[in-house]
Design brief:
5-stranded mixed β-sheet; globular; alpha/beta; Nucleotidyltransferase, domain 5; 3-stranded antiparallel β-sheet; 10 helices; about 375 residues; single chain
Length: about 375
């Protein structure tokens, strides 16, 4: 994708009528809206007629391998039909960041059998992140995680449909969206992968099988018994677990308690069924666990992070790293570090998934059972 992101910068420079050399070096792609002037949100932008060409091209690469670009790209994509000078400044900073990180890409390493890995969904929300509408943003990051495995699958960034009254409410909405749209599908898919590629012996069924006669399992027989047929063909017991990484302890307590009088309005405002979320999370194969805020990868998709140290830390956890340039200096030849356990990590970090194990309250995904 090195050449693709270089094309994104070239298209922007051509439409904005500037030279690539004028793009300054920035540490993060997002811009704090409080730095913008009030008139920037009212005056029409210079790129209003060509904004879609720039943003939609960058969105294609962000959805594939550059998940950290989802928030700045999606927030600009919502303004394509009402482009302002504030959007011009946001897109310029975004292209400055892409120009500096053209060789960044998504990495993954796999070193375990299928039955030892589980889908992990990082879910978070940026409370009232929109300066004009005060609406929150839902973000999620899905990966397959095991003792020696961390394989990113997908990520999403979506603006919530109405204003939330608290961070707990916005994160409940984000968790419901992530589980419904990404988590349960990944769980069903990984069940099939474990069944086909697993090396463990088949576990007994969740309920005792009834061994019927052959004519009772033949759909064309007059003595066909649907009850015995489906009981006999029941799938073996599944061991795959969907892990939801949540950094808000109030959300975890509400889900475990399975009731909240303060959230009775969600079906009318956000159009989500909280009871459905409680029922899904009550299943023993769906677990919501606490993860420290500093290890919440979904923060990349919910807000503008302007602290370079926090930004680089989250990028490293999300496996988004720069590559090594080839001798010709044209395209990345190798990964910056070999995937797997050979990653050059310090003693204060997990040697497998790069989580900082020195932070109080944090729990490495390798230890999640």
């Amino acid at each position: 994708m090195f050449g693709f992101f270089r094309q994104c910068v070239e298209v922007y420079c051509e439409l904005a009528k500037i030279k690539p050399e004028t793009l300054r070096e920035v540490a993060t792609p997002g811009m704090d809206d409080h730095q913008l002037k009030p008139e920037d949100f009212e005056q029409e932008g210079n790129l209003s007629k060509d904004a879609a060409k720039i943003i939609m091209k960058a969105l294609c690469g962000a959805r594939l391998v550059r998940f950290e670009l989802l928030w700045p790209v999606c927030s600009s994509a919502r303004q394509v039909t009402k482009w302002t000078r504030a959007c011009d400044k946001r897109s310029h900073r975004l292209m400055c960041y892409i120009h500096r990180t053209e060789d960044h890409s998504l990495e993954s390493f796999v070193g375990d059998d299928a039955q030892h890995c589980h889908p992990v969904l990082f879910s978070d929300a940026g409370f009232a992140g929109d300066l004009l509408t005060a609406k929150s943003t839902s973000g999620c990051y899905l990966a397959i995680v095991g003792p020696s495995t961390f394989a990113p699958i997908t990520a999403s960034c979506k603006k919530q449909t109405c204003v939330s009254h608290s961070s707990t409410e916005s994160e409940i909405v984000a968790a419901e969206q992530g589980i419904r749209m990404e988590g349960l599908q990944a769980l069903a898919f990984w069940e099939l992968v474990t069944e086909l590629l697993g090396t463990q012996p088949t576990q007994p069924a969740e309920t005792q099988k009834v061994v019927p006669k052959s004519i009772e399992t033949d759909p064309y027989s007059e003595q066909f018994d649907p009850g015995k047929y489906f009981a006999y063909t029941r799938k073996p017991r599944q061991t795959t677990v969907l892990i939801i990484a949540e950094d808000n302890e109030a959300v975890i307590k509400i889900v475990k308690k399975a009731r909240s009088m303060a959230l009775r309005h969600l079906p009318r405002t956000h159009r989500i069924d909280v009871q459905w979320l409680f029922e899904v999370c009550a299943n023993p194969r769906v677990r919501m666990l606490y993860v420290n805020t500093k290890q919440q990868i979904a923060d990349l998709m919910t807000k503008s992070l302007n602290n370079p140290q926090i930004w680089e830390h989250l990028l490293d956890i999300a496996q988004i790293r720069p590559g090594i340039m080839s001798a010709a200096g044209i395209a990345p030849a190798l990964l910056a570090t070999p995937p797997g356990l050979a990653l050059p990590l310090s003693a204060a970090q997990c040697s497998t998934c790069n989580f900082d194990i020195t932070i109080k309250g944090s729990l490495c995904p390798c230890e999640w059972n």
